[in-house]
Protein 1
Amino acid sequence: MRNRRSLIKSKEKHSTNRITVSTLYDDVNENVVRVMNELGHSSDLTVRVIESPHQKTLRAAIIHLDGLADDSIINENIVDPLIQWLKENDQVLTFKEEQTSHIFTVSQLTVVENWQEFVSAVLTGDTAVLLNGSPKAIIASTKKMQSRAITEPSSQTVIRGPKDSFTENLRTNTSLIRARIQNPNVRLESMKVGKSLKPM
């Protein structure tokens, strides 16, 4: 009996020692494939890979969820400055805070190495920038603020629970689901329905 207890304790110690924090890869393509597989190739997952005109190995991936992140902030403060920087520089882009703050002009920038923190930031509406050759991610604050309040449903009202209704456009409706359920297991799939009008 004592030998059995000592064996169980040794197994528990061995299992706790094997628990490691998952980190990002230093290859952009591997991280892109991994996040697409983890989010189930969801239709609202947007991935844009930008390559340097001077070096094909100098690549960056910009990852965000459509509907949760602000497209104007991403294009004006992340995509355009990064493309311009890659055209003007042929050196390797590093994760120095003073350098990234000069390139990306957003209100808040953080650097993460943990995979769970990276996925969590994307699920909450932030934009992740991955650079080839570095196992880190730049998280830019790009959460989208709704231009107007989401209207309550005129019928089928409830006393308890959320008052949101799916009366907005497609991406606003999907963003309501993402905001309520920040889980990578949520899958969104787009399809065409109908033959005459062909609505999306």
Protein 2
Amino acid sequence: MYLMTKARPLSSDTVAEPLNEYDMVVVLGGFGTRALQHDEAFMEWVKSAAPVKLKISVCTGALLLGAAGFLADKRATTRPSAFDELAPYCAAGVNERVVDEGEVVTAQGVTSSIDLGLYLVERLASSEIRVRVAKQMDYPYVMSSDSRRASS
């Protein structure tokens, strides 16, 4: 894999290594997810994240988590135009910016990634640190926490 930025090239030493030893896996969305959810080799790689304690998606990355079986019996979200595609993979597709179902957290469209990042700061650190980070970012919005967490 080779990515190019305006500042300098980025490269990867390893491609498609098993994901099972990571603490967290983030699956991004995009147009390619529609085809990748049906690509057996790619989906076997995504499924290698099964033991990972925290699987996260943004936008249509939820389709890939769903195709891997990680959304079964869970609520999930994705960009609103992909709710119908998400439906077969989860218990309920919900119109919320961030949905936390314990080991899986899904975020809606690309703009919800800021909300997701701040939510994860709070989940992994504390609400005080989330507030501090949001202030440093000059991010004035506050999400209600009642709809994101999995029900106990």
Protein 3
Amino acid sequence: MKEQAARKNRLEQALSTDIGREFSARTILFHQAIASLAGVSATDMKCLDYIQRGVAQTPGDLARETGLTTGAITAAIDRLERAELVLRERSEQDRRKVLLQLKHSPQLQALMPIYESIADQSRTMTKRYSVEQMETIHDYLTRWIEIMRQETRKITARSATVESKSKGAKKST
């Protein structure tokens, strides 16, 4: 029984810190490498991902989903547009509304083999696991995504509070 508890403790430690941190670092470095190839930032590439998956169809959607300011989103979209990865289009129904679309350009097509390779490796890896194990992995990762959303919101709120306090301090001087 003690051996089982010790094993569980080691796995919890590995998943919550050691492996979790390395996975996070490798993910960031992977996305930064792709972003460098595309001539944009890793944040820009994650914005592109939200657009590609249909999570964000407008700059406002993108700001809400990422927690970035509208100014930061405008700059990211500008960079993605210059890199020929995204198009801004006016909505047919409401001309005031700007819609974001992938630009099916040679630049975007050049990135596809990278994503196809990682997707192929992921599919190969998941074949090792039973349905029950994959359900556990799915549950674990889904819960982590929600934890990261919540923690990001907390940081963003704290950052906004600090920013507004510093602006208030500048006005009173």
